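Archive entry: two folds, one per protein. Generate the first.
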Amino acid sequence: MNIYMIPNQHNAGAGGHQPAVFRMAVLDTDLDHIFPSSVLPPFWAKLVVGLVAIVCFARSYDGDFVFDDSEAIVNNKDLQAETPLGDLWHHDFWGSRLSSNTSHKSYRPLPFLAACFHPMGFHVVNILLHGGISVLMVDVFSVLFGGLQYTSKGRRLHLAPRASLLAALLFAVHPVHTECVAGVVGRADLLCALFFFLSFLGYCKAFRESNKEGAYSSTFWVLLSIFLGAVAMLCKEQGITVLGLNAVFDILVIGKFNVLEIVQKVLHKDKSLESLGMLRNGGLLFRMTLLTSGGAGVLYVRWTIMGTGPPAFTEVDNPASFADSMLVRAINYNYYYSLNAWLLLCPWWLCFDWSMGCIPLIKSVSDWRVIALAALWFCLIGLICQALCSEDGHKRRILTLGLGFLVIPFLPASNLFFRVGFVVAERVLYLPSVGYCVLLTFGFGALSKHTKKKKLIAAVVLGILFINMLRCVVRSGEWRSEEQLFRSALSVCPLNAKVHYNIGKNLADKGNQTAAIRYYREAVRLNPKYVHAMNNLGNILKERNELREAEELLSLAVRIQPDFAAAWMNLGIVQNSLKRFEAAEQSYRMAIKHRRKYPDCYYNLGRLYADLNRHVDALNAWRNATVLKPEHSLAWNNMIILLDNTGNLAQAEAVGREALELIPNDHSLMFSLANVLGKSQKYKESEALFLKAIKANPNAASYHGNLAVLYHRWGHLDLAKKHYEISLQLDPTASGTKENYGLLRRKLELMQKKDV
């Protein structure tokens, strides 16, 4: 059997295939004490990795929609059945138009093209995706550790089965992946990673066959790699960085570019520099041209679709990027990098959000935390020196590719090219963790080579795998519900106002207002400009009739953020309750000014006008609400009731029929229209609507009571008596029903006396 290989040479000679004898990678032989030969065949290695990856995160399969899932899935209009599929291509990941000032410009149309609305479906797919990606990583690590060697039939040889298996297992069980796997929003990261690695492996196939000139090149595979990179980018922005990694792989591994040798020749003015094989390699230059032009074209198209404006983030999202001093920004960015590195090294302190005071700014070089970024750069510089200057070509290749996978996919999240909307985000480490696994596996191999305590190293490796698996299981459980997720963050980021805010919101949704108030107050204390916490706290205080404090909080919120439409509307509701009608009207108008399409605000404005007996204005406001939101049941109901109460029965009937055409199953609209029809003596139609409303909501006392009134008028006294009694059973305190029932009983008694 002929074997074609890309040899691991120490010089920068011209690329070309050479017949070679099958030889396992050096690193792999250093790990033979950890994995027995029986699990080394690729099929079994992939089976083990896939099962381990699924087991680690299986606990999250029945989790709820948590944290960002609600905004991205539940409340995302783009995922609703009636929304045209084409809208996905014009909106950001959260459903906002890319041209909007509030858009995050996260153009990711692919992750939810096929979406269900039950959380279990999302979670199961995410778990399977991570399992599939982990299986794919066996091939990726096999290339990184063992190089590219092919048989004459084009089959790639697995020359580093132990190293690739260990690295794939480290990747599969890394707890930092929990957010991507257990959180539904992580679908974007998982799909991005899938196409990212397919692009890399596709690029490797460009060197599967040799041509007549001895250059390993295949335009098809290079173009396919660019296409898959573009698909990865349409899942998440990091995906485009695979083209840079492919270029690094081609130059340093395929072209065997030796930085140390080049520098030495430049310093000694060696004339042989002009004849470097890499510079004369037409295939390499052609592939670099394809990668560069393809990447530039993809980025241009994306930039055109997104619009030229950058996303608008606030200081609380990324405080370091708003620092006036460039030195302060640089120090804090580097500190963030060190925290990301620590999360890869020791993924024990994990948090769903790292913003809002979780990581206080470093404002001086005297801050002890500067030691962390010094340690980071000490390690990185040491690794870079070894990667570029080592005389061991195998070591140089592995370290270079490990650093490439660690650094290049992280660049979009680094704040170097544009401001990002977070401080630290575990989800962006899914791709860089590949580089970490490469470096860690290489480190274990180096330790094993230079020590006699191989069993100790094997125990450490297996211990790390086991501990990480346990951490994944525990962390997956925390991501199953918002309450567990938010409370788990308290021990990690007790100074994070958003953590307290989310716990408060979760408690408020469950009806525990007293506890919610405590957490909202703590969120405002930690961040005195946290307008969303002020708004939610003001709402609860309003419901508890603590109107003065509610007004103070909401007034402060709109002073801090004048375009906060929801706070303006809630302030108007409070002012309306305080009988400050002019101020309330002004607040509603301000809310509509800042959010023109605000049906709920028009509804509340209509209620204000109704209280002031400005009936025409009330009807107009409610009509605006229904135009903006045709399914706004409360606005339709109020229009019907107001027209009914003012004697405009024909108009009330017309509005009621219009509303039921739009919302045919709304029992409250059936009830309101039935009342109007009864007064218009259309008894048969009114009865049908009452019965339909009662069928939909059989425990509504007023439905039975008003149907009894209809029968009373209609002369069906036995039916009237029946429904009066049902109504009083459901609500014994209803005075009107009691009075009408009393009148009916007296009438029935008189009729009995006449019969006697």
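Generate the second and append.
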Amino acid sequence: MSTPGGSIRNSRASTPVGSKRNSNVDGETIEQIHSERTPDHHLFPESEFAGLKRHDSLDMEAAKIGGHHGHHNTKDWGVILRLAFQSIGVVYGDIGTSPLYVYSSTFTDGIKHPDDILGVLSLIFYTITLIPVIKYVTIVLHANDNGDGGTFALYSKLCRYAKVGLIPSQQPEDQNVSNFQLELPNKRTTISSKVKNSLERSNFAKFSLLFIAMLGTSMVVGDGILTPSISVLSAVSGLKEATNSMTEGKFGTDKVGYGFAPVISVWFSLIAGIGVYNFIKYDPSVAKAINPKYIIDYFKRNGKQGWISLGGIVLAITGTEAMFADLGHFTVKSIQISMGCVVYPAIITAYSGQAAWLRKNSDLVEDTFYKSLPKPLYWPVFVVAVMAAIIASQAMISGTFSIIKQSLSLGCFPRVQVVHTSAKYEGQVYIPEMNYLLMIGCVLVTASFRTTTKIGNAYGIAVIFAETLTSGFLVVIMLVIWKTNILLVILYVLVISSTEYLYLSAVLYKFGKGGYLPFSFALALMFIMCTWNYVYRAKYNYELDHKVSREAIKDIVTDPNISHMGGLAIFYSELAHGIPPIFKHYVDNVPALHSIIVFVSIKSLPISRVAPEERFLFRRVKPNEMYVFRCVVRYGYTDVRNEKESFEKILIERLKDFIEFDYGTDPQQGRIANEDVMKLEKAWRVGVVHLVGEHEIVSREGSSLAKRFLINYAYNFMKKNLRQSYSVFDVPHKKLLKVGMTYEL
């Protein structure tokens, strides 16, 4: 045991082979199970309570309360329109700046036939209509997890409906959190049941789903690194001489939205206006590109080269995944309004105008955007283009922050600082460590590749790979959760998924010409995420195997050789079932106990947020004279853990409420409850000590070389260089006591 300055680790234990994880509450009666809130027995019959003993459940929650969803379910059109305006600056900078480089990236060898322009315009039109509009705006946004998007939101949604999670911390009372239950269709289908059962029975399927969620996250981060490089390089390509500028600042989504939205709105107005001008002046007949016949003719004329050119056309939908990843910052309606009313019309008009100009100037395709500008507008557009390109980076960067926050809460990413940047709206975050990582990656990419052609090859793979992974999750959700008609699922796969795989095949062709870059980023990030999650799960299972039984707790508390002192001790762990082994280790080294002991388990649920009134679950370890309590504190993956009011104060107030409820309404029992509350307050006044495990994680003797490397070196390096668990709750260092213990995994 130690103060923050150091720790003594003198306990080593390894996980026994074939150890059994027995509940430490066997034999407890249902009267011992209580909630912080009064249960309604009309809603929960006795039969439901009786079954809780078998699950080591803490409490049965009371009747469901109204959801705590912030602005996500708002019907206030004023809020929706404000968020729609904000989203223009945060979400669409990336897809909005694509007209800077799509035609030049597509016609890398020049335009061979005049009708090739119509074929490419037709491809751009149907690709934007099919993927950003039909797939994302119409379908994917509705697969959100209580207002939050991204691959981990889809994974969390599946974990709630099917038992595919890999952490054995599920409890029956989790089902009663107000937004835990999914709104499901009443119908049952054979296919849905078969797919669900297959997923639940297969460990391979469980690991595959988690792996895909991590891979999707890695690709979005890679997208966030490549977006600044290609957008800014394309914007400044209008200059004859090199111009270098650096900006630095820290902004959250709230400030970025209001600060950047006017600039991006001006940008969309300019490209739409110029598109209309070029369309009318040069060749209005390009409107016939709406006929998909030109796509067929284009591939007939160009064959393999036409297929390869898809790697340039796919850049027209860059930033599409940001619409879903950034959803937690906005609402479904706000994204739909901004896309349908502003973004889609503007970019389709811009591409049509450029196509009309190219029909008369096909030899200038390498610099289509700037050459097609009316001369008086050249410098104003250039200035706005550079600003828009810089802002475009924020779209994927914001999405990166969101999904890293989700993966962090689900034990799939090392602890990093998460700054909530808006007091008004939930989910708007800034992560300094990821910001620096993205900056370093962007600088390295720009310095190494220098041209938009190579970066475009890498960018296309990152974009379309992330979108195909989202489609894979969506198909599973359609089958298992939505119970969509199988014919509609097949239609989705044949039309949308097959289109994405066609584009993916084209960009993979350029793997050696820069396409390897996003896979390099993904490989590095996947190593970090998989290593952290592997040790996180192994550590949880170790604590589950070595938890302290109820009988052992009683023996320790009543041991005459252990001295007792005033004050309150709070032990922290992530173990949701039972008392963590760190407690016994502490007592073995320091044979003294405080007058009141509270074991706090920090638990992340696979939902976006948990209402404050549903967060704390308590149980009193019997007999009452021991004054030992267990508490599970539940958070969603977007919840703020550093509340304005200290965690310690909130915990004590909720514990008082629980004690008063625990004794019921009988006057005599009420007097005992008052005495216990007074004892708690006295202990609080005497002093509180927060005990946190300072675990040394090592591989068990005889482990393979790979396992030793992952645990002893990779994991411990990350652990030592990132945030500690106690910093999550802003525990004052003067009240903090770290207990050292070695876990052999």
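Annotation attached to the second fold: The chain is about 55% helix and 10% strand. The CA atoms of residues 122 and 289 lie 5 Å apart.
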